[in-house]
Amino acid sequence: MHLHPDGLASILASALASGVPGVNAEDLVDMLGELRAPEAV
Predict the structure, then answer these.
(1) Cα separations (Å) of 30 from 14, 17?
(2) What are the backbone dihedrals phi and psi of residue 39, each rounded to the nearest 5 degrees, phi first?
């Protein structure tokens, strides 16, 4: 069973798009994939 909190995908996508140093893009992409988030496309 996977939990998919409302709004989590948009927060992760926002962090990924920010390009802030220290953000681990690979992990964020993996998490978005696990959530099957349309924002990841």
Answers:
(1) 14, 14
(2) -65, -20
Whole-model pTM: value is 0.77
Report d(CA 6, CA 3) in Å as an integer.
9
Helices 8-18 and 25-35: angle between axes, nearest 10 degrees: 150
Q: By the 8 A CB rule, do 13 and 40 touch?
A: yes
pLDDT digits (tens, 9 = 90+) for 8-40: 999 999 999 998 999 899 999 999 998 888 877
Residue 13 in tokens: 């996508």
What backbone phi and psi angles, to 5 degrees, belong to 29? -65, -40
